[in-house]
Amino acid sequence: MDKLIITRLEDKICTATVSEGKVVQLTLEPDSGPSILQNIYIGKVQKVVPGINAAFVDIAPGVSGYYSLTENKEHHFVSGHSGKLKAGDEIAVQVSRDAVKTKAPVLTANITLTGRYCVFTSGKPGIGFSSKLKDAAWKAQMREALGGISGIIVRTNAGGLPPEMVLQEFEQLKGLYESIRAGWSCRTCYSCLYQSEPSYIAGIRDSISGSLKEIVTDEPVFYRELKDYMEKHQREDAEKLVFYEDSLLPLKKLYSLHTALEKAMGKKVWLKSGGYLVIEPTEAMVVIDVNTGKYSGKKKMAETILRTNLEAAEEIGRQLRLRNLSGIIMVDFIDMEAAEDKQSLMHYLTEVVSKDPVKTTVVDMTGLNLVEITRKKVRKPLYEQVLS
Questions:
Q1: Which one of 238, 339, 377, 378 is CB 3.0 to 4.6 Å from 326, fit for a cystine?
Q2: Which residues of 114-148 are buried (b: 16+ CB within 10 A; e: fewer)?
Q3: 110 burial level (CB within 10 Å; 0-12, 13-18, 19+)
Q4: Does 384 score more than 80 pLDDT?
């Protein structure tokens, strides 16, 4: 069972997930306002670049986003104009990916609105299901109940629920989309048509049903916002919300959040066995090196290496989530000779990353014994959140 901690840290709003006494996820947002991720704007096309089949669209003065023309065939022109996109056109766009390093935020015409049980999507017809939903009979029942509905992705939290609950939420999200769309023609350029929830509310919404033991905050404003949200949208967890009051031991010290953040910003991570990881984010990918370190066990070398690699695999899964590292991740595990040891490692690593709320895939082990992982890019990595 997890605890969700919401407080202030380093002059930012901090949302921390604590599992089995360890901080497994940290999100920092500027106190000046939440991330623009998932916000919907009326943007102005700055320029179209045929060479990369993309456009750059301003969503605010001086704030430009990347808009792929390959992925976005249809555009939401706010003036009723249709046809080929050109500089000066005003279109409705959603921020699908935060700005990362030197890359601009990614914009899309596929408007998505997320609920606890499903996602409404304007640009993808049909019915989709979370990859974590494995019950084929229940999925078939859900497909039949949803009938001719199009543009819905059923989330993991819907598993086992009656179709009526999912359908009710979908209709609410669809109504919200239609309301947003109706306002396109009467709003000025750079208007924010929809603002997504701050990370501390999204953290509750996106938590796996039954996984939260407690939601704790020491900020009165956050407590009121959370209480209002949960009474309206997640009443089954409302009693888990706790307001923390202890002036002698602040919440951030109780859960050692400063220490967790400091360690998450470091390159080296020690393992219990005496081995360690070296984590190096680069412009192109994240590189992780696994070392035996000061392990002094007396077991056979092959057993020592496998044990260290398995321990490293578990810690890598935690570190990817904690640091919010994404994109291509290359892991240089300690070389193993036995094919069965390699298979055991890959199987265990796949099991570990499957628990990550962000889609994470173990791709393969290369001929150089490097393990390739991909993790979906959504928010900025933690080290950039600290600097923003």
A1: 377
A2: bbbbbbbbbbeeebebbeebeeeebeeebeeebee
A3: middle
A4: yes
